[in-house]
Write a structure and sequence with these properties.
Blueprint: H1 4-21, E1 56-65, E2 68-77, H2 83-95, H3 100-104, E3 117-118, E4 128-131, H4 142-150, E5 162-165, E6 174-176, H5 180-184, E7 194-195
Parallel strand pairs: 4-5
Antiparallel strand pairs: 1-2, 3-4, 5-6, 6-7
Length: about 200
């Protein structure tokens, strides 16, 4: 004869087995690569002390964080440069490796080293900037970084747009605006430009 204590123990074991079997995740014999575990980044703009040194000025440089382009404050040389000089200074900033505070906040740059900028070709609008790579061929978010960093500075046009083109003289430069699409869509650099006139 089976004792009540033995029956109770068997019931508990059966209940535990049924409970774990119904956890909702099916077993599979095929390995599943779910990718790296998601990381939480703050995307908080690092605090930069205001510049007191003569010849230095604070500017917003747009970096990539959490699949969007966001500004961080940097201190750069202020030499009252023209459009091209300003564009070159800002491009250099975009090519610099983020500092420790920026990295901790989750910021990175997609703007490649070796990218250069020059002035307009004949027939371009006066505010055009020509890159040594086609904007369409740049990495994700790089056009957004360039446009949003140049806009509102001497490198951009008076209406806060930025006219960018590549090295091919037969390909017209396009006018870009630092809008929500350019800040949040990786492929926007290839779709958001409008013919500059």
């Amino acid at each position: 004869m089976t004792s009540p204590r033995r029956l109770l123990g068997a019931g508990v074991v059966l209940a535990l087995a049924l409970g774990t079997a119904g956890c909702g995740i099916r077993a599979t014999s095929v390995p599943v690569d779910a990718g790296a575990a998601p990381t939480r980044v703050s995307c908080d703009q690092p605090r930069t002390a205001p510049s007191q040194a003569p010849g230095r000025v604070a500017v917003d440089v747009y970096l990539v964080c959490s699949q969007r382009v966001s500004p961080v404050r940097r201190i750069v040389s202020d030499q009252h440069q023209d459009r091209l000089g300003t564009a070159r200074t800002l491009l250099t900033e975009l090519q610099h490796k983020p500092d420790q505070a920026e990295e901790k906040g989750g910021f990175a740059s997609e703007v490649p080293g070796g990218l250069t900028v020059s002035g307009p070709f004949p027939g371009d609008p006066a505010e055009a900037l020509r890159l040594n790579q086609d904007p369409d061929d740049l990495p994700s978010f790089a056009v957004g970084q360039l446009v949003c960093t140049f806009a509102g500075t001497a490198a951009g046009a008076a209406d806060r747009s930025v006219v960018l083109g590549g090295p091919d003289r037969s390909t017209p430069a396009l006018r870009y605006r630092c809008d929500d699409a350019l800040r949040t869509r990786p492929d926007a650099g290839a779709t958001e430009g409008a013919r500059a006139s």
